[in-house]
Amino acid sequence: MLNLYKFKNLFYLHLNQTLLKMKLKSLISCSFLIFVVTFSYSQTSNNPWSLAVGVNAIGLMNESNIDSEMGFGFPYIGVSRHIKGGLSIGAQYNIGESKVNNITKDYVSIDGFLKYNLSNKKFIPFIIGGYGLSNFENDSEADGYFPSRSAGRTIFGGIGFDIFFTEKISLKLLSSYRSSSENGSFNHIQNVAALTFNFGGRDSDKDGITDKKDKCPEIPGLKEFEGCPDTDGDSVPDNKDGCPEDFGLVELNGCPDYDNDGIIDKNDSCPNESGLEEFNGCPDSDEDGVIDGEDKCPDISGDPENEGCPWPDTDGDSISDNIDSCPDQPGTIENSGCPELSSEIVITINELSTQINFAAASFRIQGKSVKEALIEIKILLDDNPDGNLVIEGHTSSDGDEEDNLKLSKNRADAVRNYLISVGVNPERLKTEGYGEEKPLSDNDTMEGRLSNRRVQFRADFK
Predict the structure, then answer these.
(1) Which of 238, 342, 360, 447 has the fewest CB atoms within 10 Å, counting from its CB?
(2) Please, what is the angle between helix 368-383 and helix 401-421, to 10°?
(3) Model confidence over 34-82: pLDDT tens digits?
């Protein structure tokens, strides 16, 4: 009865201690989780192997005829290998002590286990379960640590936490219940605190960043750039740097812009002069569409067709030479820069043309008065050497309309030919035929038809 009473007290003591520790661990864990929840570590995939070395504490759970206390020991050694996701497989070896009836006995266990991580944060809770052997005394006369008469086959399960200080170093806290019903063994609680070293991630470029996390696994780089180098030291990693060997600006993808015109030097045709994007970074000071380096007049707005210079006006008629048909003679805009006969001269010539008439259906120049009028016109043109004339031919409505059109052109040509024959420059004379389109008088009378068989003159605007 006494032993049962002691067992109950011992059981409740261990249970209360375990629950208290679990509550304390949960409180610490929750606080720690809140503190580090923003940090993420994927240690199992990047460092698949882990080696844990630590201390342990063993407490018996269900013996009614013994008096036991929590025993502490060293070392605990655990090795595990990540498989997939949060799952790992491993083995653990433990040397400790158990205090039974005031006698300290050696404790040894060796197990295989499966471990499952419940998160991938810096603070990782996990569950563990496995199978192994537990020995509560070391028989010095038996071979090995686990002679069959003193070792118990053990099934166990538990919970724990991995708390990471760095990506490779963490603290493991584990509490597991171990059930062993064989003779010479006991059901017991095993608590472990161990320092864990995580390793095995491949690092091809030896920069301290595993290949799985290294964006540049073949080139040594920096942690802040996920394993990529920054050759030019401009805070833009080489894999994102448009100019990896030239110190540049972050906003320009690591490329320099010496003249600060927003165009990187390697695309800037004028890298030492601030310019415009449409001219590949070259300036155009006079804004005439010709860059300064190709502009013969960089300070004066000009014409791209004249190498950026304004066109001259040789004759001073306010019409630039490029559109002046007579660049060496002052003229009018209406006459494309060429001189023209004054309206007074043209009126005088047309007064003389009233004496130039033709017989019906004829374009012959005949009659003394007609020839005298043409000579007067020639003299007027000689006295006014600037300007040209258009000779218009007309007919009466007699005859076919199409024939009249040809006849009117022949009459104008006849007058032109006569004026040329008496010395007028042929380049000053043009001809046009209008047929019966523009009568001066009524074609119903003989006098009207006679006056309509005529020529007229007008100044020529080119």
Answers:
(1) 447
(2) 60
(3) 333 333 344 456 788 999 999 999 988 765 556 678 889 999 999 999 9
Strand partners, 384: none
Question: Which residues, listed in sequence order, are joined to residue 459 by a DSSP beta bridge?
Answer: 389
CB neighbours (10 Å) of residue 351? Answer: 11
> Distance between CA atoms of 162 and 173, rounded to whole angstroms?
7
Q: Which fold has domain 2-199?
A: Porin (2.40.160)
CB neighbours of residue 358 within 10 Å: 27
CATH 2.40.160.20 residue window(s) in the chain: 2-199
Do residues 63 and 7 lie in contact, with contact meaning Cβ atoms separated by under 8 Å? yes
The correct answer on CATH 3.30.1330.60 for the domain covering 343-459 is yes
The helix/strand/coil state of 293 is: helix
pLDDT of residue 65: 58
Look up the pTM and report it: 0.43
Mean per-residue pLDDT for 425-431? 94
What are the pLDDT digits (tens) for 250-268? 999 999 999 999 999 999 9
Distance CA 91, CA 87 (A): 14
Joined tokens for residue 344: 């007074």
DSSP H/E element including 24: helix 2-36
Residues 6+ apart with CB under 8 A from 255: 241, 242, 243, 246, 248, 249, 264, 265, 266
Q: Which of 84, 76, 101, 90 is nearest to 175 (CA)?
A: 76
Beta strands in 180-295 (DSSP E): 188-199
